[in-house]
Amino acid sequence: MFQFVSYYCCGLCPIKNYTILLSSAIFMLSFRMETKKLIEDAEKYLMHTYSRFPVVLRKGRGMRVWGTSGKEYLDFIGGIAVNVLGHCPPKVVVSIQKQAQRLIHVSNLYHIEPQIKLAKLLCVNSFADKVFFCNSGAEANEAAIKLARKYASDHRGADCYEIITTLNSFHGRTLGSLTATGQEKFHKGFHPLVPGFRYVPYNNIDALRAAVSPKTCAILLEPIQGEGGIVVPGADFLKQVRQLCDDNGILLMLDEVQTGMGRTGKLFAYEQFGIVPDVMTLAKGLGAGVPIGALLATDRVASAFQPKTHASTFGGNPLVCAAAITTLEVILEDGFVLDHVNRMSRYFFERLSHLKIACPEKVLEVRGMGLLVAVELVRDALPVVNACLDRGILIGTAGAGNVLRFTPPLIVEEKDIDVLISTLEDILEK
Ligand SMILES: Cc1ncc(COP(=O)(O)O)c(C=O)c1O
């Protein structure tokens, strides 16, 4: 069919223009029907856990993805901070292909070469001495919760099990990580939750101090709250939390599922705040799109996990680890990606601050760090997200529903930011 149309289009055949138009219309119609059918099947066969946009994405390259309708989208959500190197990054694709031909999966009953290499790479480039691999952010936090309890039970006794987390946080959807998540709207319908959690307001050291008791074994925090609306804490907050933990023998556990892997302009966000945690969780960008999570800890804390205390069948399998090794190598290559993130971040924030000045009655605040960026609107953000979708740009929401969230691939360029800003200007002016 495609050859048929291009034959006419290139003028080899003296057929009338309306035939070409008719063929294109048939094409468009068949794409639309295919998309409609796929969405009908999705409704019928998939559990309704997501309110999805009426788009089926089929193909991606760099900053762009294409739907089954043939429509092109500029991607400023990047799989919600997952596609750090853009879509189908060539080096990651090659390493997945090579690894798939060599070894896809073996059990953790045996040593796994890419897993060992990835663990070493993560430890050499962070505070950590040891890594445990799993498959998602929720699983990484679940593992962190278990590690904190086990460490406290070994060193401080069975009564020390409480974990303090913050209101408005997000740590995942498994029962433990859901309980850690300080947002009632996610808890509704799933009680009884896991006992032993307390919640305090974010960025409030006095509330945190008041919540600490001899039962407290750990504080679990996002260095920047992501789902909660891209909330950046005050400059000293994390330092004060570190001090509080040190003074009371409490573990500081940072959830860097969204902030890690270069998102803020450093490999890990804790580096931005001049502190070092005892435990850190990663996922999202770690594999540039393949499902992998990780729990990192110092030797002292990691020693609480021994054979038969924790495990995962797929955790750290050869295929995902090969992808994550390449992802890390690309990010660390001569600091190229991180320098680029910082340059693009400056440009993005500068353009957004002008947007705020241009639309003061629509935009309340522009905030974030690196390429974790939010625009808080006066009104609901969803109509703006939908309008961007219509115009071929993917963006997200966060927080109370009036926050636009941008987590583009770290390879985003000025020209992409220009397209986004002029589209936003246009939409907000209307
Ligand atoms: C900070 C944070 N922690 C944990 C999670 C859960 O990760 P996953 O969806 O991979 O389980 C998320 C997901 O958005 C997150 O942003």
What report would you give on this structure?
The chain has helices spanning 2-9, 17-45, 78-81, 90-102, 113-124, 137-155, 175-180, 184-187, 205-211, 237-248, 299-302, 318-332, 336-358, 382-390, 414-429; strands spanning 57-61, 64-67, 72-75, 130-134, 162-166, 197-200, 216-221, 251-255, 279-282, 293-297, 363-369, 372-377, 393-394, 396-398, 403-406. 42% of the residues lie in helices and 16% in strands. The relative contact order is 0.14. The chain has a 7-stranded mixed beta sheet with strand order 4-10-9-8-7-5-6, sandwiched between helices. Helix 13 (336-358) runs parallel beside helix 15 (414-429). Residues 1-11 have low confidence and may be disordered. It folds into 3 domains: 1-42; 43-87 and 336-429, Aspartate Aminotransferase, domain 1; 90-334, 3-Layer(aba) Sandwich (Aspartate Aminotransferase, domain 2). Strand 14 (396-398) and strand 15 (403-406) form a beta hairpin. The chain contains 15 helices and 15 strands. It is of the alpha/beta class. Residues 136-138, 141, 170-172, 222, 226-227, 255, 257-258, 283 line the site of pyridoxal-5'-phosphate.
